[in-house]
Design brief:
This protein has 227 residues and is α/β, with parallel strands linked by helices. Helices cover 37% and strands 15% of the residues. The strands form three sheets. Strands 3-2-5-6 form a four-stranded parallel beta sheet, sandwiched between helices. It comes from Simplicispira hankyongi.
Length: 227
C-alpha cells in the first residue's frame, strides 16, 4: 500500500454536503494550509500502521465535525493527537485549526480504551469523510448510499493491503458494512448516545480485560486492568 497514493485518491473525492478534510478548508476554523496538514497527518498515520503491522481496524461510521473533520484522523480529536505520537514513535501529528483545541466525547472514550489494549488497531470509518446537513457544515448526519459508493474501493484497498484480519465495529451501521470484506467482524456498542458503559464492557470482553469505570477526569488513567 502506498499511503501517498491512497491519500491523494481520497482527497480527490467531491460530494455535495460532504466536507473532504483532505482538500476542503473551513473558512471559520481552519488554517490556510489545513487540508495539507490533514493529508500529512493521514499519510503519517497510515505509514506508521504499515510499519507496525497493524492487522485490526476499529471502525466507526463517519467523521464528526468536532473530531476527524478537524484532524483528518478517524475517532481522534485534537486533544488526542499527542497519544498517536506516543503509540507511533518518531511521528508528528499537527493541528490544522486556529483557536482552542476542540474535544469530542466519542474520541475521548475511544482513547481511554486504546491506552489499555496490548496491540493498537487502525482507527477508520465506513465513510472516511464528513457528511453534514445542507447549509450547516458544523453538523453531523448519516452518509447516503450514493456517497458510500464513492469510497468503497478505497476501503477495500485499505483492508486488503494492510492485511486486516479483524474489524471491531463500533455500532450496528459499521457492523453491517464490515461483513462484506470477508474478515472477522466483532461488534461493540458505540460509546455515544448513552452507550459508554456497554462500549467499555464490550471492549473488555473482546480483549480479555476487566472493565474499570474510571473517573472521566483522570484522562491518563487506564480504563481497563488485565485480569
Amino acid at each position: 500500500m502506498n499511503p501517498n497514493t491512497f491519500v491523494r485518491e481520497l482527497a480527490s473525492i467531491e460530494l455535495i454536503n460532504v466536507f473532504n478534510p483532505y482538500t476542503d478548508t473551513c473558512h471559520v476554523y481552519d488554517k490556510s494550509n489545513a487540508a495539507s496538514v490533514r493529508r500529512r497527518n493521514l499519510r503519517t498515520y497510515l505509514s506508521a500502521a504499515l510499519a507496525q503491522g497493524v492487522d485490526t481496524i476499529w471502525m466507526g461510521r463517519d467523521l464528526g465535525y468536532r473530531g476527524g473533520r478537524r484532524t483528518g484522523l478517524a475517532l481522534t480529536d485534537e486533544y488526542h493527537l499527542v497519544d498517536l505520537e506516543r503509540i507511533f514513535p518518531n511521528t508528528t501529528f499537527s493541528r490544522a485549526t486556529v483557536g482552542d483545541a476542540v474535544a469530542e466525547r466519542t474520541a475521548a472514550e475511544i482513547w481511554r480504551a486504546l491506552r489499555c489494549i496490548p496491540k493498537q488497531p487502525l482507527l477508520w470509518n465506513v465513510f472516511p469523510l464528513h457528511p453534514h446537513e445542507p447549509g450547516s457544515q458544523l453538523s453531523n448526519r448519516r452518509f447516503a448510499s450514493r456517497e458510500l459508493a464513492a469510497v468503497e474501493g478505497l476501503n477495500a484497498q485499505l483492508i486488503r493491503e494492510l492485511g486486516v484480519t479483524r474489524i471491531v465495529s463500533l455500532g450496528q451501521d459499521a457492523a453491517h458494512y464490515a461483513k462484506r470484506f470477508g474478515v472477522g467482524v466483532e461488534t461493540v456498542r458505540h460509546p455515544s448516545y448513552g452507550g459508554v458503559v456497554d462500549f467499555r464492557r464490550g471492549i473488555a470482553e473482546l480483549y480479555g480485560l476487566r472493565a474499570d469505570l474510571i473517573n472521566p477526569q483522570q484522562k491518563q488513567a487506564c480504563l481497563f486492568a488485565a485480569q
